[in-house]
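Help needed: design a sequence for this.
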């Protein structure tokens, strides 16, 4: 017997047009200014890692290189030969990967922080001077507090000239490799996604964490390295490129490792200038880490930030990359 009421009407959903679904998926990868920053960063990271792996695999077929690496790992002593080979692979991988991305993004290579026309120009040498003064100030303070002795010369004559030049070249390579890897394409690209300082903090933290892999390194030293990363980013923002940071990085490492002959991120160097020594509490000397593990390093960094802010005011003509959705 019929109840007199009609059956409920079934509503059939209308399928979303395929073009709308495709547009939604496209929005995951493409933003208002092209491929989103996060994907570009991942593309670069994969290219960089793949090239480093390729170059290092090739080098493993060279017996002399294998022996150099084994000696450094066994003795914990850096050599100029190791620096030349190791850093050249990172420079090559970073530059080639960035060059590929520059073609893909249709941007000039120089926007990633190392304009070739300004290579080793005024900013680089200003950075060198700052790096030497920075490390000298840290060592003199530690020495004044009774934590460091200069000792007697460890080199003379031809050996002195040889290692002075080799380490100068080696640490310039370190400066280029580490600055461009952590504050070149990576900093530029993440800035377009999440802004300059969030990118700087993230990449500087990664920079410090990677140094924990060095023998003798510790968390205080890694924090000091991260602080250096933030200072380098500050110089990048104020000057518009990485040449000051490269000069500072090279000179501070050179002074720490060769001139004052102390551990650098926990590593000693072959062919250093002095038979120097640390003595005193770890907070003052940094222990096996070297000056980077000393609290004095953070004091000098604070002074460096203040001095740089006053001497290198913000310039309106230094254009930061436009930020868009990540």
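Sure. Designed sequence:
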């Amino acid at each position: 017997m019929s109840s007199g009421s009609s059956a409920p009407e079934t509503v059939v959903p209308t399928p979303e047009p395929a073009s709308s679904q495709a547009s939604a998926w496209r929005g995951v990868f493409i933003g208002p200014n092209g491929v989103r920053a996060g994907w570009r960063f991942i593309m670069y990271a994969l290219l960089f890692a793949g090239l480093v792996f390729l170059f290092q695999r090739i080098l493993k077929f060279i017996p002399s290189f294998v022996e150099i690496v084994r000696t450094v790992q066994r003795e914990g002593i850096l050599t100029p030969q190791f620096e030349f080979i190791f850093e050249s692979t990172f420079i090559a991988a970073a530059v080639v990967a960035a060059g590929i991305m520059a073609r893909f993004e249709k941007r000039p290579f120089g926007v990633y922080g190392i304009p070739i026309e300004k290579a080793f120009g005024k900013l680089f040498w200003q950075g060198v001077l700052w790096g030497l003064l920075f490390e000298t100030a840290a060592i003199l303070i530690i020495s004044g507090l009774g934590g460091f002795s200069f000792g007697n010369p460890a080199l003379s004559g031809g050996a002195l000239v040889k290692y002075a030049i080799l380490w100068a070249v080696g640490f310039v390579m370190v400066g280029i490799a580490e600055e461009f890897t952590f504050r070149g394409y990576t900093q530029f690209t993440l800035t377009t996604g999440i802004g300059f300082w969030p990118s700087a903090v993230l990449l500087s933290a990664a920079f410090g964490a990677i140094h924990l892999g060095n023998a003798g390194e510790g968390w205080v030293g890694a924090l000091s390295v991260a602080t250096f990363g933030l200072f380098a980013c500050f110089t990048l923002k104020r000057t518009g490129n990485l040449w000051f940071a490269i000069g500072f990085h090279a000179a501070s490492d050179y002074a720490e490792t060769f001139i004052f002959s102390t551990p650098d991120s926990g590593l000693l160097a072959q062919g250093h200038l002095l038979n120097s020594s640390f003595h005193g509490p770890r907070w003052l000397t940094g222990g096996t880490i070297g000056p980077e593990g000393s609290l004095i390093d953070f004091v000098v960094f604070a002074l460096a930030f203040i001095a740089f802010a006053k001497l290198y005011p913000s310039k309106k003509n230094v254009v930061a990359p436009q930020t868009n959705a990540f």
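The chain has one domain: 34-311.
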